Amino acid sequence: MKIAVMPGDGIGQEVTDQAVKVLKAVVGNHPMELVYAPVGQAGVDAAGDPLPLQTREIADKAEAILFGSAGVPGDEAIEYNMRPGASLLRLRKQLNLFANFRPAFLFPELIGASTLKPEVVEGLDIMILRELTGDIYFGEPRGVHTLPNGEREAFNTMRYSESEIRRIGHVAFQTARLRHHKVCSVDKANVLETMQLWREVMTEVGREYPDVELSHLFVDAAAMQLMRAPKQFDVMVTGNIFGDILSDAAAMLTGSIGMLPSASLSTGNKGLYEPVHGTAPDIAGQNLANPLASILSMAMMLRLSFHQPELALKVERAVQHVLADGLRTGDIYQPGCEQVGTREMGNAVVKALARLPR
Ligand code: IPM
Ligand code: MG
Question: What pTM did the predictor assign?
Answer without folding.
Answer: 0.94
